[in-house]
Write a structure and sequence with these properties.
The complex is a heterodimer of chains A (222) and B (239). By secondary structure, chain A is mainly α. Chain A has one domain. Chain A is built from 8 helices and no strands. The longest helix of chain A has 31 residues. Chain B folds into 2 domains: 166 residues, Rossmann fold (3-Layer(aba) Sandwich); 68 residues. In chain B, 35% of the residues lie in helices and 27% in strands. In chain B, the strands form 2 sheets. Chain B has a 6-stranded mixed sheet, sandwiched between helices. The longest helix of chain B has 16 residues. Chain B is globular, with a radius of gyration of 18 Å. Classes of the chains: A mainly alpha (222), B alpha/beta (239). The interface between A and B is medium-sized, with 24 and 27 residues.
């Protein structure tokens, strides 16, 4: 736990000192929401399905900008070797990096989601408490998969080009479930209609967290 | 005295190329092994395996009788490494880097230890400067401090003098002598025969992945050793 907290604190400190990832994530998310808003005729309402789609396009595409940085930061001066040589367990290392990605996405979403409500109508605002739950579950899956592939691509020269190619195909099922659940929430559906999907999202996050912990030592060594 | 570090029939292949072939040796507590060899002889691979960064293809490394692969976490607490890379974060200050590493090793007072080490490597006045602003020599000095942050009982040094100016090299030589006096076990890979022979209690030559020479320093004649080194370096380039 100590190693986990130390690595997470170090990464947060680095990000807040020079918030490159966070600024680019928020800016890109804003840009996507504004551009997509231009396609909607003035004064017209969008359907819950379209709203959910727009929101998650902005979130998933902006997330990738932060995901690629957490592991590539360790590539500099082979700092990853410094962590592997220390008595910190590989589980703590993976969980710290995953938690960093989770926190980064959450902070970016704290800016992106309010803008979504501003641009696409406050009728969706009543769904906010349940949407927060969906965001937390989706972030767990995105962070686990993103951390795993960020570790794989950090060892390559084309890290930032390669990560989306590996990341998006694997998160498509999670994105489609997330969009489905979000649209049901925007429609005001009863929780019973989508609760099973929430369990699937939770399982998705747990499976990839486990896979990441198991595979990270093989990925970062040699 | 029992073996502190025991390397048994270590082999390693990289994409069909054999980097290490049946390398075996034993070091007792306080031994200082200077390992020489031409480029591509497998010296860095050997250090990477002993440091647990790379898994061996075959063979075994034991520290105080414990298998390195089975109980790496216990072993890592006692290990210090200086490699080709500084393993330092450019965006953090010298002091922050050392405190971070000291905390990872659960050092009792990380702040105090970090400041003491910064004085030793004479970087105390630059403790609040970011590593990204340091020259290569200063980074190397800080890298020495980082490797000593947990007061390691086994120190692995991969070309520690490379890139150091005379001043920094003198600091490192002083530190190595101190480690030898404190009976720390050291493996130093180097091309510098002069420095390697001066500090060692044991000397070895690795050529084409094989440990072709291993003797106690006191049994080795400098001139004959130099002749042997050049013979192996000429005869066996990269595997």
């Amino acid at each position: 736990m100590r190693g986990f907290l130390l690595i997470l604190r170090k990464d947060l400190h680095a990000e807040f000192r020079r918030p490159e990832s966070l600024v680019s994530m928020v800016f890109f998310g804003f840009l996507l929401l504004v551009i997509l808003n231009l396609a909607i005729p003035l004064g017209s309402e969008i359907s819950p399905e379209t709203g959910a789609g727009i929101l998650w396009v902005a979130i998933t595409f902006s997330s990738i900008l932060g995901l690629s940085r957490t592991m590539s930061r360790e590539k500099e001066n082979r700092c990853i070797d410094g962590l592997l040589l220390s008595p910190v367990s590989i589980e703590a290392l993976f969980c710290a990096k995953m938690a960093m990605n989770f926190v980064l996405m959450l902070i970016a979403q704290c800016s992106i989601i309010p803008l979504f409500f501003v641009l696409y109508g406050d009728s969706f605002l009543q769904s906010l408490p349940l949407l927060v739950l969906v965001v937390l579950l989706a972030n767990t899956g995105f962070a686990a998969i993103g951390t795993l592939f960020s570790a794989i691509t950090a060892g390559t020269d084309r890290n930032e080009a390669l990560l989306p190619l590996l990341f998006y195909p694997l998160v498509i099922p999670l994105i489609s479930i997330t969009v489905k659940v979000s649209s049901l929430i925007f429609q005001g559906a009863a929780p019973g209609e989508y609760s099973s999907w929430l369990y699937v999202m939770l399982a998705y996050g747990c499976i990839f967290t486990g896979l990441g912990v198991l595979l990270l030592s093989h990925i970062v060594r040699e | 005295m029992g073996a502190f570090l025991s390397v048994n029939r270590l082999c390693k292949d990289y994409e069909g190329r054999r980097a290490l072939r049946d390398v075996s040796f034993v070091l007792e507590k306080g031994d200082f092994l200077s390992l020489f060899g031409p480029n591509g002889a497998g010296k860095s691979t050997l250090l990477s395996i002993v440091s647990t960064l790379v898994s061996p293809g075959a063979g075994q490394v034991e520290v105080k009788g414990f298998d390195l692969m089975e109980e790496p976490e216990q072993f890592k607490k006692q290990l210090g490494v200086i490699s080709h890379n500084s393993l330092l974060y450019n965006h953090m200050t010298a002091l922050e880097n050392l405190i971070f590493y000291a905390s990872l090793y659960k050092v009792k007072d990380p702040g105090k230890t970090a400041l003491e080490l910064l004085r030793v490597v004479e970087l105390y006045p630059r403790r609040h400067s970011r590593v990204g602003q340091f020259s290569r020599g200063m980074r190397q000095r800080l890298s020495i401090a980082r490797a000593l942050v947990n007061d390691p009982s086994l120190l692995l040094l991969d070309e520690p003098f490379s890139g150091l100016d005379q001043y920094a090299a003198a600091i490192l030589t002083e530190q190595l002598a101190e480690l030898r006096d404190k009976e720390r076990t050291v493996i130093m890979v180097t091309h510098n025969l002069e420095r390697g022979l001066n500090t060692a209690t044991k000397v070895g030559i690795l050529a084409a992945g094989r440990l072709v020479f291993m003797e106690s320093r006191q049994d080795v004649d400098r001139t004959l050793f130099e002749a042997a080194y050049f013979k192996y370096a000429r005869g066996a380039g990269p595997v």
